[in-house]
Amino acid sequence: MPHTPLVKVVITGIGLVSALGTSLEESWQKLIAAKSGIKWYQPFPKLEPFPLGLIGQQPAKLKRLTQTVVAAALQDSGLNPPLPDCAVVIGSSRSHQGSWELLARQMHGYDSTTWENKEVVLEDWLNTLPHTNAIAAARQIGATGTVLAPMAACATGIWALAQAALLVQTGQYQRAIAGAVEAPITPLTLAGFQQMGALAKTGAYPFDLRREGLVLGEGAAVFVLESAELAKQRQAKIYGEILGFGLTTDAYHPNQPEPAGKSAIAAIKQCLERSNLTLADIDYIHAHGTATLLNDRIESKIIQQLFPQGVAVSSTKGATGHTLGASGALGVAFSLLALKHQTLPPCVGLQQSEFDLNLVTAAHYSKIQQVLCFSFGFGGQNAIIALR
Description:
By secondary structure, the protein is of the alpha/beta class. It has eleven helices and 15 strands. The protein is 31% helix and 19% strand. It comes from Halotia branconii CENA392.
C-alpha cells in the first residue's frame, strides 16, 4: 500500500479555567507575574483544611467547567455550533466522582447538607458515568462524529490531545475538540492522597529542596485542533502545531515511577522521532513537576541525562495546583502561550532548587521554537507532546 503523508495539525482555539483565573488570558497574566492560585480551604467540615487550587470558593462542578471551556475554545477559534463533522476527545481522571460520592452518602443515609450539590439524584446516575462528560460536550457543540473519553491518570490531557491529533493527522477528521477537565476536590480524593502521604501541608514547591508533596487543584483546558489546510482556508489564527507525541507505560507500580525512568525516556524518544526533532532542538520543557519527592527527583534525572544543559525547564503546578488529568492540558496551553509571546513561564513556588537544571525562576523573553510538555501519571502512564 502507498504511504499516505500525515496531515499537519494546528491549534486554533484554547479554552482554559484554573485556580489562577476564569480565562486563558487571566491565568497567563497571573502565571507570568508569578502569582499562585493556591489558598487554604476547608470545603468539607469533617476533613481538616488543606492548601488547594480552587477556581471559586466552593469545589467546581465538572459539567459547568466543561461547558465553560468548550464554549471558550470555540469562541477563541471563531467557530459557532453546530459542528457535526468534528471529533470530540475530552478526558478526565476523576470524571463525575464527586457526584458518585454524594450519591453514596445519600443512599447510606448520611447527611449531605454540608456538601452543597442538590443537583445529584439517583435517577441521573447514568449521566455520571465516566465517559458521559465527553458525550455532553459533543451535545453542546452538535458534534456527531467520534467521541472518546480517555482516562490515563495524570497523563490524561496529553493522551486526549494525542488521540485527537491522530484523528486529524490520518485524515479521519479535519477538526477535533480535545482536552481534559478535572473537578477533583472531593472527600475521597483528599482523604486518599492524604493517606498515601502525597499531599503537601503548606504549599506546592516544584523542584525545591523543601518540597513536601502535591497540592490538589481543579481546572480544565480544551483545544480546537484542525488540519493546517482547513485553518488556512478559514484564515484562523494559529497558536502552534502539534508535531508528535510519545505514549508509554512503566508496567511497574500502582503509584511510584520506575526508578530509572526507562519508560519515560522511551516516551520522550518516541515523541522526538515522530516529530523529526533531536534533543538539541528543544528550547523549553514544561515539566510535570508535581513537587513530590519521587516525581521531581526522577524527572530531573531524566532531563539531565538526555537534554543539553541549557534547556529551560519549569512546572506551573506551584501556580495552579496539580489538576491531575487536566494538568497536561493546562501545560500545553501555557506552552502554546509561551511560544506565542516568546516568554518562558516561571516555576512558581521554587526558591532553592535541589537539581542542576536551568529552571525558570522569573518569566522572561526567550527565543523559543520547539517545546515539549511532559505528563507522568499514576500507574506509570507517560505522555509527551511536541509543539512548534
